[in-house]
Design goal:
Mean pLDDT: 96
Radius of gyration: 26 Å
Largest sheet: 9 strands, mixed
Number of helices: 18
CATH topology of the largest domain: TIM Barrel
Number of domains: 3
CATH architecture of the largest domain: Alpha-Beta Barrel
Number of strands: 30
CATH class of the largest domain: Alpha Beta
Structural class: alpha/beta
Strand content: 15-25%
CATH superfamily of the largest domain: Glycosidases
């Protein structure tokens, strides 16, 4: 029976909140590991994740399996109440396999074949390697199928983390096979790709090569978009071969994967999984100014998955070769863990238990230092464990409350990438819009275009160039039933084949927005501004001249700042069209650093969104809820005490103190207020 809830509103259905670390017993001596389980239990851990890079330990020679290290480790963990997540170890095949099959190595755009000594070096589209990946998966699954202490699996590790576009013979052959499946005959492909341009017409699928840029000039954008789609479908097929074995062997296991990386449609990838995982390292960006970076990545996972887990949450400074992430200040590691929970995580596993003493990640710090000594990170980790052991049951079963959403779809970002024109795409605008929603303390999030829009009040579509009749109809129906839809420039200007539509923009959405776009162009300098009554709003990177066809004018284009003539001067730039019980607002430009805040303030006049609280912009406020309770999270991303006001009254779960609507947050402090419904 299908689940009637929008996917982004589905809980994970885990039976307890997961808290633990990634663990690598194969990298340590028995003496190093001697006290691990005791210290883990004392810190409140209930799970470890293991074996993701241990193929050579499990199978040192082809067909000779040795599970003794992991059998013993799983048993020792179970003795102190810690369960195990196992990983299929296919991201790092052993040397004996690659030495026998050098033709399986991946090939980059310059024709360079990868070599053994790193990871993700073997092509996942190679039939031989796929067979090997399924063979090791089956061997592990059958060995551990009766273990009561193995609760779930992670497939591989971070698909496409380092390398997404492979140009080996296996990929060329697989791409042709994928195209045959999609188009059936080559003439249909020729029409879909517009091969009449530049004499590209194909007589046979075998003539088709993988698209390459600058060989000598730009590739066919329709072919390139299909290649990106192929990459996503192909890695999903690789994963499916493992997932089917795991489910067939032990139906009680749940299965996940850790991401998120480019050229993967995670909405599709999630279809074979119970829930997704996302790896989060907030020290990657400047804190606290860019605190929303992690929130956005978490929301990308939630939009594809519903509730999720974090298989790798930053546990210290992380770095390799030329960089070292910011070291979390006292309290910040815990803050970042709660940030993930506030955006939908039902499990946190820090990376890693102990910092490696060798290898490419020997300066990627874990909970314990190189010398195996527990210091402030362990103390903070233990504080998390004690708190989550106590309040984890309150978190499970709740989902993030989202009223204001930004639409996301992998196809849109991929289509934009094939022809950016130097203009902002969906991702760039989403970052700005979502950050402004966060600092305004709105109940905000991302929603995939394939999902249901039920429960949303405001939906922003950031320059979705690709549009089809099915999505257009769903958006129209949602607005008719009371939704407020907002779109920015170039929306609905191409079809799914990545051809520019013959319809006047916004094409299939023209009736919904009650407007046509008569002209568009770039604005390399801020020549024009939007005029809304007495207010002036700075424009983004481009302009569109709008012609209302029933829509109300909200803003026009001001004269050029240098006094020169411009086609847009005095023309309509922003419109609102009443449609059924809702409204559709069209922004004839792009969201930018300068205009996002005033544009959202203007939108709020037409789509009243109640803030979750009042606080400084660097205080993050979110809400998770279910039928019985609401949990309001307040997160202080600053190093100074902060006050949060206008919160719901209720029990603050971490301190077990009642909150009357105002609370004081310590530097990097966290609060969770439970309101019973």
């Amino acid at each position: 029976m299908s689940n009637p809830l929008p996917r982004h509103q589905r809980p994970s259905r885990l039976n307890r909140f997961l808290f633990g670390t990634a663990y690598y017993p194969e990298q340590w001596t028995p003496a190093d590991r001697e006290n691990d389980t005791q210290r883990m239990a004392q810190a409140g851990m209930n799970v470890v994740r293991m074996a993701e890079f241990a193929w050579d330990v499990i199978e040192p020679r082809r067909g000779e399996f040795d599970f003794s290290l992991f059998d013993a480790t799983i048993a020792r963990m179970a003795d102190v109440g810690i369960e195990t997540i196992l990983c299929t170890p296919t991201a790092a095949p052993p040397r004996w396999l690659t030495a026998q099959n050098p033709q399986w190595m991946r090939v980059d755009a310059e024709g360079r074949r990868m070599r053994h000594g790193s990871r993700q070096h073997v092509c996942t589209n190679n039939p031989g390697f796929r067979a090997e990946s399924q063979r090791i998966t089956r061997a592990m699954a059958e060995h551990f199928q009766d273990s009561p202490h193995v609760i779930g699996w992670q497939t591989d590790n971070e698909f496409f983390c380092h390398f997404s576009e492979c140009y080996c013979d296996a990929c060329t052959s697989s791409f042709r096979q994928w195209l045959r499946g999609k188009y059936s005959d080559v003439n249909t492909l020729n029409r879909a790709w517009g091969t009449a341009f530049w004499a590209q017409t194909y007589d046979d699928f075998e003539q088709i090569e993988l698209p390459l840029r600058n060989r000598p000039t730009h590739p066919n954008p329709s072919q390139e978009l299909d290649y990106y789609r192929f990459l996503s479908d192909a890695i999903g097929e690789f994963q499916r071969g493992q997932v089917e074995i795991l489910r067939e062997t032990q139906p009680n296991w749940w299965v996940t994967h850790n991401g998120l990386f480019e050229h993967i449609d995670y909405w599709k990838l999630r279809g074979d999984l119970d829930f997704l995982g996302v790896d989060i390292y907030p020290g990657f960006v400047e804190q606290p100014r860019d605190f929303s970076w992690a929130s956005l990545k978490l929301q990308q996972c939630r939009a594809a998955s519903g509730s999720f887990i974090v298989p790798e949450q930053q546990g210290g400074a992380g770095g390799q070769l030329l960089y070292l992430h910011q070291t979390p200040a006292p309290g910040q590691m815990r803050l970042w863990a709660y940030q993930a929970i506030a955006h939908g995580a039902d499990g946190i596993l820090h990376f890693r238990w102990r910092t490696a003493r060798f290898g490419a990640e020997m300066y990627w710090n874990g909970i314990l230092d190189h010398d195996n000594v527990a210091r402030r990170r362990y103390a903070e980790f233990s504080q998390e464990g004690r708190e989550l052991e106590r309040i984890g049951t309150k978190i499970l079963g709740t989902v993030v409350d989202v009223r204001a959403a930004i639409l996301t779809q992998t196809d849109q970002d991929e289509a934009h990438a094939t022809m950016t024109l130097g203009l902002p795409g969906p991702q760039e605008q989403t970052k700005l819009i979502f950050r402004q929603m966060l600092v305004s303390h709105w109940p905000a999030g991302l929603v995939d275009a394939a999902d249901s829009f039920a429960g949303l009040k405001l939906l922003v579509v950031p320059s979705f160039v690709v549009m089809d009749e099915e999505l257009a109809a769903r958006l129209q129906s949602w607005v008719e039933n009371g939704g407020i839809l907002v779109a920015s420039a170039r929306t609905a200007t191409r079809n799914r084949d990545n051809h520019v539509s013959a319809q006047t923009p916004p094409g299939l959405l023209g009736e919904l927005f009650g407007v046509t776009v008569e002209e568009f162009g770039t604005l390399p300098t801020p020549l024009l501004n939007l005029k809304t009554g007495d207010e002036t709003i700075q424009v983004g990177a481009g302009y569109e001249i709008l012609r209302p066809r029933g829509a109300q004018t909200l803003a026009t284009w001001s004269p050029a700042s240098d006094g020169s003539p411009h086609a847009a001067t005095g023309e309509v730039a922003l419109t609102l069209n009443r449609f059924g019980q809702g409204a559709a607002i069209y922004v004839g430009s792009y969201f930018s650093e300068q205009n996002t805040a005033p544009l959202l303030a203007l939108l709020r006049e037409h789509a009243p969104i109640e803030s979750l609280g009042e606080a400084d912009e660097l205080i993050e406020i979110t809400c998770r809820h279910c039928l019985e309770r609401r949990l309001t999270f307040a997160l202080n991303h600053t190093g100074q005490p902060q006050q949060v006001r206008a919160l719901p009254a209720g029990l603050e779960l971490i301190s077990s103190q009642m909150c009357g609507g105002v609370l004081e947050l310590a530097p990097y402090g966290v609060a969770i207020i439970e309101t019973r419904l």
